[in-house]
Amino acid sequence: MEAILETKDLSIAFGGHVAVNGVSVKITEKKFTSIIGPNGAGKTTFFNLLSGQLTPTHGTIYFKGRDITKLSTTNRTRLGIGRSFQITNVFPNLTVHENVRLAVQSQANVRYQMLAHFNHYKQFKEKANELLELVFLDDKANSLAVNLAHGEKRKLEIAMLLALETEILLLDEPTAGMSLEEVPAIIDVIKKIKGQEDRTIVLIEHKMDMILGMSDEVLVLFHGELIAQGTPEEMIENETVQSAYLGGQYDEQLT
Amino acid sequence: MDLISTLVINGLATGMLIFLLAAGLTLIFGLMSVLNFAHGGLFIWGAYTGVWSYQLSGSFIIGIIVAIVTGLLLGLITEKLIIRPVYGNHIQQILITLGFMLVLQEFIKVVFGPNQIAVSPPAFLQGSFYVGDVIFIKYRLFIIILGLLVYFVSMFILKRTRIGLIVRAGVMNKEMVQSLGINIRLVFMLVFMVGAALAALSGMLHAPYSGVIYAEMGLEFSILAFIVVVIGGMGSFSGSLFAAILVGIAQAFMAYYVPALSLAVNMLLMTVVLIFRPQGLFKAKG
Amino acid sequence: MNLAKVEKSTWIYLAISLLLVIVPFIVTGRSMQFIIIQFFIFAIFAMSYDILLGYTGIISFGHVMFFGIGAYSTAIVMNRFDSTILSFILAIIIAIILAAIVSLIVGMLTLRLKSHFYAMLTLALAGLFLVGAEKWRSLTGGNDGFTFSLPEILRDSQSLYMLCLLSLVLIFFGLRRLTKSPFGRVLMAIRENEKRTESLGYKIVHYKVIASVVAGVVASFAGVLYSISLRFVNTSVFATDMTIDVLLMTIIGGVGTLIGPIIGAGLVEFAHHWLSSLADVHWIFERWIILYGIVYILVVIFFPLGIVGTIQKKFFNRQNYQKKKQQNPRRKLDEGRKEDEDELYRNG
Amino acid sequence: MMSSLLRLNQVEAFIQKFHILHDISFEVPKGEVTVLLGRNGAGKTTTLRTIMGLNKVSKGSINFQGEEIGNLLTHRIANKGIGFVPEEQGIFGELTVGENMRVAMKKEDEQTTKRMEWVLDLFPDLKKFWKKPGGALSGGQKQMLAIARAYVNENELLLIDEPSKGLAPIIVDKVTESIQQMKEQTTILLVEQNFLMASKIGKKFYIIDDGRTVHSGQMDELKEDKVLMKKYLGIS
Known about the structure:
Chain A contains nine helices and ten strands. Chain A is of the alpha/beta class. In chain A, helix 3 (96-107) runs parallel beside helix 5 (150-163) and helix 4 (122-134) crosses helix 5 (150-163). The relative contact order of chain A is 0.18. Chain C is 76% helix and 1% strand. A two-stranded antiparallel ribbon of chain C has the order 1-2. In chain C, helix 2 runs antiparallel to helix 11, helix 3 packs antiparallel against helix 4 and helix 13 (259-277) runs antiparallel to helix 15 (306-327). Chain C starts with 7 loop residues before the first helix and ends with a helix. At the A-C interface, helix 2, helix 3 and helix 5 of A face helix 8, helix 9, helix 10, helix 11 and helix 15 of C. Chain B: It is found in: Cell membrane. Chain B: The chain crosses the membrane at residues 7-32, 52-74, 94-112, 139-158, 179-201, 221-247, 254-276. Chain B: Keywords: Amino-acid transport, Cell membrane, Membrane, Transmembrane, Transmembrane helix, Transport.
């Protein structure tokens, strides 16, 4: 199997605190990889390293064999690594539709066009609408993003990420903070993308049942270190994971 | 040699004056993360009220006291009316304090008239003396001593006293300090008042130094103070002292050797610093 | 061009422009015409500032340097060459090229900095230009400045009026199109959330530099008009007061609206004129800046969106509310409660 | 009947315009450890912050020792005798461990000094790193410092938000032990995701879901109630 994304001995320290410590993983192309670990295990930090928000203190990141450790966020996105954020991160005073259209526009490489009216690009408008429909936000297209409820903002995040059509999708807890009723819809969206089998998906998630159903591979982070890696079934059997992370029968899901 | 020493002393005196003004600015920025463009307004109000009472009473000390009191009061008003609604929003702070600067400057003209006022140092600080070949102007020496005094007293308060501790803790985590039972609003108001008083004091001290005061002085000097704060690293007290002295001495030398460039030297210094070290000289990271 | 596709607001603006064409035939007083001309010029200047502040979220305290570059280029060219239309066109070209070069260099050097550093650095750079204008006496005449002559047609108040109006209208529509282009939308995205714009694959520094070049060139053009309206130039065109003025106009009118700065410029210009003429009534009006400063402070605190922004927001909300009611009456209103707590603490 | 130290009655709260707490009602009996449980984003942290006055109460009442404290300013609430250990610990990173403690000490009398000594015996690490900046401590040490800091004043009630978050299991045991010692002297309201830890020290529990207190009972019973655990806590 081809590894599309690979890290070698990736580490980052903030002050004295090592948030990610010597993580070496291979993410297989067109597979669904989940990263689990308790709060504070370094999952989001790991994502930030992959997408370029942070620069590692040492270690290397390869995308299709190419060293991308020093590339900016912008360039990584253009190469094909897109991400959603755990802390909702949209353009508050633009409409929902504009939020998505900005992503569509970037994907279509229309970046410095300053003479034409944006409505000139009908295809962008339509594509943005399609994506909003996909995440069930079409009726909010003309609201300002700032006025969305939290769950809706998460949906918007996903729509923007999909609009970029990147080969890799990094999803940082897409269902965090959503009400229970909203979760299935988002899972459906993710399953739909997975069903198309043309993207590599990496997902941080706490809800074990969700991971079990979809993941091809599970990585377990604990204290910034990769303590186990394997199929979901293997992870459930794995004793290291059991003792260090799951900590007996109860407390895993509480995080 | 004596020429260089004289220039250095001149530069030090100018630097100390700028430091006093910048100290308040950097204190307020470093501790409260407030960009106060009205600082120059506090400076001229200190100068005018101080000079007015100095000339009325004949006592320089009274002038200084009045300037400080003006600073404290204006600081109180500024914090309550102008800064409090816009805590945490840099753009709004810049915009609103700039507007207040204009108002303060124009009010000077309303209260004290639009003309400039001539000021001379008090008798006991007039004149100069020689040590070897180097000339010491008393008033400048006075300013240098006072500036150093302010620096060390402030450092002592910040580093060694409980109130200093609280202020430093408050900068790092406001909510936590409140949760420990401390009224952080009051503490910050005091910090702002002290910063304003420093501005007013520097205005008052500046008056006899330049010999004349006028309302537009505020904006001119606040630009200078901002330059110093940026060069030193915003929020760094020691950085401001260093940068103020640097600017003061650079100005003194330029004024002597390349007078045409003396006005531009500060801007050039800042431009160079910002381009190569945008966080300023005394700060670890941006 | 398909007329049906033109937005309704465009027709309104065109109609207003036409009305303004008639004005000089009604208002024939030279001093009043002069005030309106000043209003047009500052409206152009304020719009250019709005591109920076309102659309891209950049606070510059040195925008006046481009205005000054325009003013001095014109004055110097007209002074050294014959006072013909040709040299006037040459002056415009020089003004624009100079402004473009300076804004490009300044932008590339400084736009990587954080907002408040950028604000101060531009303040300092404008200060450098001011010092330069004072010291380079052979070229600028120092503090006192100099007068220059103009071709006949530009000396005529009515044709000057038309020139300024035409410029205002063209620049307004040009900038409006720019802000509604895909490029303009990216600028707004940068204003809203720089980091996120980056992770969508946009190189934000490029955008900021382009925005500052556009703003610089337009400001320079305003400077050109300013100097020919006075037939005189001095160092005041580089003064910080001028930046503050244009800042006030933009904010009072409403940032990020383009039409706002025009209205702001009008208000400030006319208020200035009217209040200082009241100085005979009471001396306080001589200090009209106090009033103006207080109004401005109140605007920043209570109407941070400015006049136009506040109106637009009201309008937008109402429109949206009605739309929502029609489309989806059953939708629950209290969906907000799931807001991620952490996130709100950070934002709030 | 046990007297309750703190009582929340139908508390509602907003963050910005978002309605986060809808109906929070519970009591914290004196001398016990009461635990708040619930999913991520259920409103537990907001509840603690609202008690502390860091968040406004829009409706309902918060009663502490028979006195209404809803919407008092935070420092006043703190001075009534409530200590707070926030989720992110709130360590002053550039102050030393000693200075962190000094900020907290309201007075430096004999009694406070005694408490300080007692606390430091509980956390010998803090003594060892007395002159080290708080920011350089490990996660566990930070947590201990945060707890020690809240404890050094004579507080009636401690609010502790997820002390086990991001800590290694061995450290969690240490923190658990220290809280167990403290509960002898102080009433504690604990938010905790680590069920093992919570069940060791907690007596009574309340489950918060969707900004509402939906269930309460004794900690011992909860362990057996698989249905409840799955429904609200997602434990299978």
